[in-house]
């Protein structure tokens, strides 16, 4: 069960945003990721949480996000469906979009999208539609990305072979591209994400 800490920052000006303390593991349904977010300060004040469960095919069985008093509960149902609850807990709005999965600031969503697509180095660039929840208000936004697996290299480590996949991810609307490095179910690097601490090796998904 990988357990560690990511630091999250603004990918443009590198302003520190949060620390994400996570653990993740395969489970009876597929894969689960749980994290608590804190301020990037010595006080480590609580900012929110992430709880994502995927099925064996990489589809989001269950998503629960908390940030700024807002809450998202969602899953895959005729596309993706969610309920967004306001900080007072008195009102809730529902949404359904013909999309493949969810995304957001958490590195968990990068792992989830890679797992859903299951690309190989010979796969053509693949387009995926996602519903994004970002910022403290967790406002939903539908977007399209294009993913391609550029390379997959195996490195020798003290804990055995470690395969690192390099993805090129493009934002279809803006044309912006960035690189994501992934080892099993742990993000090694991505825009706005740095792996600061990892207590146990990544889990290798079955082929």
Descriptive account of the structure:
- This protein is mostly beta strands.
- It has one helix spanning 108-117; strands spanning 3-9, 16-26, 30-38, 46-55, 60-67, 70-76, 80-85, 92-97, 101-104, 126-134, 139-157, 160-171, 177-183, 186-190, 193-198.
- A 15-stranded mixed β-sheet has the order 8-7-6-5-4-3-2-1-15-14-13-12-11-10-9, covered by helices on one side.
- Strand 13 (177-183) and strand 14 form a beta hairpin.
Shape verdict: globular
Q: Which structural class do the helices and strands define?
A: mainly beta
Beta-strand share of residues: over 45%
Helix content: under 10%
Element-level helix/strand string: EEEEEEEEEHEEEEEE
């Amino acid at each position: 069960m990988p357990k560690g800490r990511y630091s999250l920052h603004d990918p443009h000006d590198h302003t520190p945003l949060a620390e994400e303390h996570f653990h993740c593991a395969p489970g009876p349904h597929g894969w689960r990721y749980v994290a608590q977010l804190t301020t990037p300060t010595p006080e480590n004040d609580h900012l929110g949480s992430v709880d994502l469960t995927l099925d064996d095919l990489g589809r989001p069985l269950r998503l629960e996000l908390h940030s700024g008093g807002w809450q998202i509960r969602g899953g895959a149902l005729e596309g993706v469906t969610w309920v967004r609850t306001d900080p007072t807990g008195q009102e809730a709005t529902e949404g359904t979009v013909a999309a493949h999965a969810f995304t957001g600031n958490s590195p968990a969503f990068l792992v989830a999208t890679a797992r859903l697509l299951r690309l190989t180095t010979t796969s053509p660039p693949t387009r995926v539609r996602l519903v994004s929840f970002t910022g403290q208000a967790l406002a939903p936004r539908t977007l399209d990305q294009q993913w391609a697996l550029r390379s997959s290299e195996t490195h020798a480590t003290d804990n055995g072979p470690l395969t690192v996949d390099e993805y090129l991810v493009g934002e279809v609307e803006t044309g912006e591209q960035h690189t994501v490095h992934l080892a099993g179910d742990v993000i090694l690097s991505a825009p706005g994400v740095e792996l600061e601490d990892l207590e146990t090796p990544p889990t290798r998904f079955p082929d």
